[in-house]
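Structure (tokenized):
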């Protein structure tokens, strides 16, 4: 034991916040836990250890005393210190170098993976990133948002918000949002129909989780929003994909699935279909609602970018005409304020919202009450609406600019329609061109575009315009054009 290789197990960190005696004690505990110091083993004497570790004798005594207090070792005066015999014996592990990770790469128990899709990193350094259609964080009035947030933390009357609050979300925001959705989207609801979530993704997960048992049938569009698909796969739903044309998802095809297999839920993005951006026509909206009543399935209406429509007023959601409790309406502040804030919401019948809140309680207990109150205040003061108007104007210009550039520079290489709303153009490469190769070549020139995997490798992708200034759009498209022209020439 005198030869115990302390030097390879423990490097004393003089500047560490952990006192030296504890560093020694912790290193010994680890040795015992991994089975390299067996129960009953005699520890090296205090003098030997202090000499080897080049620390004061008193420090080693303190370490041994700590170990004894924690019952890892027993110290018998004049005989020595021994690893406690009461501890279970463990198989010896290989010696680890100090500082090595002790967490294994894979678990020791069985774990069935769901094969979750790995997206490439969104932003690399100063790359120009044509994302899926995200807002431009630079347009937010940060000073106003942080002032409002601070004022809420500081106000005495808001103290309750600093404790545990409510799984339904902040009561004030629920109230304000119910009125706001009434006024702006014609959704006749009250606060009890609203639950605040951390982004719409949580609302998607909770609603799908409540609706589905393993093997239950869900219907989505083809192609579809990746994270909705992944949520359904995770819940082991049997997913049917239904084609989309210029009028949105094909409702007749949904009825065929209803007749054949029985459908539990239909996930739609009617305002601006994700990813193709088309709007579900009025006739199909009515048809879908009627179908939901007839076959008693739930419609999950994901209205992720309601506010950004450039041609006319936004089209009212399905939820605004649903009187039967078929629709679970999901919205988010990710596009209007910022995805970083993680605030979304779900609107549905009271019974559904009560169930959703019960489930939420065991996932997250509650949301970010202070931030939620901040949003409520921004809406009440009309500031959110002001921010939306400002971004809408800017994004409209960016959409036009990107559309014009694609038309003049890349007409032969791409097919696309000018979107009426949203934050991205859905682009399909001309025959013979490969999106994965274009994406790889663009990356080498610091321009990021999707490689198409997120949309089932259809050689089509979303070219987000909202988060880029016109010069960035211009520069990025120039790079894509040069790559494509070279390919077309060769
Ligand atoms: C179809 C769709 N739903 C929802 C969201 C927003 O998710 P969250 O509110 O969780 O940020 C997005 C974001 O890009 C989206 O594209």
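Design, position by position:
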């Amino acid at each position: 034991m005198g030869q115990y290789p302390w030097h390879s197990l423990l490097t004393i960190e003089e500047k560490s916040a952990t006192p030296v005696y504890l560093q020694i004690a912790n290193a010994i505990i680890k040795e015992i836990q991994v089975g390299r110091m067996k129960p009953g083993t005699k520890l090296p004497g205090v003098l030997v250890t202090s000499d080897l570790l080049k620390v004061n004798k008193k420090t080693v005594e303190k370490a041994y005393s700590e170990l004894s207090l924690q019952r890892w070792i027993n110290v018998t005066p004049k005989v020595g210190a021994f690893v406690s015999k009461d501890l279970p014996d463990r198989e010896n592990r290989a010696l680890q170098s100090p500082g090595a990770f002790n967490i294994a790469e894979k678990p020791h128990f069985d774990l069935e993976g769901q094969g979750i899709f790995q997206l490439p990193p969104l932003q690399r350094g100063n790359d120009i990133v044509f994302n899926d259609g995200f807002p431009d964080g630079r347009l937010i009035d940060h000073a106003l948002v942080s002032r409002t947030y601070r004022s809420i933390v500081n106000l005495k009357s808001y103290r309750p918000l600093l404790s545990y609050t409510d799984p339904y979300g902040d009561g004030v925001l629920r109230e304000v949002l119910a009125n706001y959705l009434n006024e702006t989207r014609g959704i006749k609801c009250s606060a009890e129909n609203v639950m605040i979530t951390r982004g719409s993704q949580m609302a998607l997960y909770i609603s799908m989780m409540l609706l589905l048992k393993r093997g239950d049938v869900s219907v989505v569009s083809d192609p579809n929003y990746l994270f909705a698909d992944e949520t359904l796969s995770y819940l082991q739903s049997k997913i049917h994909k239904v084609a989309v044309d210029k009028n949105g998802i094909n409702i007749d095809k949904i009825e065929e699935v209803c007749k054949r297999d029985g459908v539990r839920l239909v996930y739609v993005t009617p305002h601006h279909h994700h990813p193709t951006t088309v709007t579900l026509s009025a006739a199909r909206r009515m048809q879908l609602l009627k179908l939901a009543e007839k076959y008693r399935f739930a419609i999950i209406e994901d209205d992720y970018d309601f506010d950004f429509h450039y041609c006319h007023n936004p089209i009212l959601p399905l939820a605004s005409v649903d009187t039967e409790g078929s629709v679970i309406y999901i919205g988010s502040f990710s596009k209007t304020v910022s995805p970083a804030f993680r605030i979304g919401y779900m609107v549905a019948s009271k019974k559904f919202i009560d169930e959703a809140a019960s489930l939420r309680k065991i996932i997250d207990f509650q949301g970010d009450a202070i931030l939620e109150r901040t949003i409520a205040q921004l809406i009440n003061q009309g500031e959110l609406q002001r921010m939306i108007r400002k971004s809408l104007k800017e994004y409209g210009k960016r959409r036009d600019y990107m559309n014009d550039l694609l038309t003049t520079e890349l007409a032969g290489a791409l097919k696309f329609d000018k979107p009426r709303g949203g934050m991205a153009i859905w682009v399909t490469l001309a025959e013979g061109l490969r999106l994965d190769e274009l994406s790889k070549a663009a990356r080498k020139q610091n321009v990021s575009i999707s490689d198409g995997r997120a949309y089932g490798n259809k050689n089509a992708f979303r070219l987000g315009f909202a988060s880029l200034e016109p010069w960035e759009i211009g520069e990025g498209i120039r790079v894509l054009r040069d790559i494509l022209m070279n390919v077309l020439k060769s």
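Reviewer-requested clarification: The chain has a mean pLDDT of 91. The radius of gyration is 30 Å.
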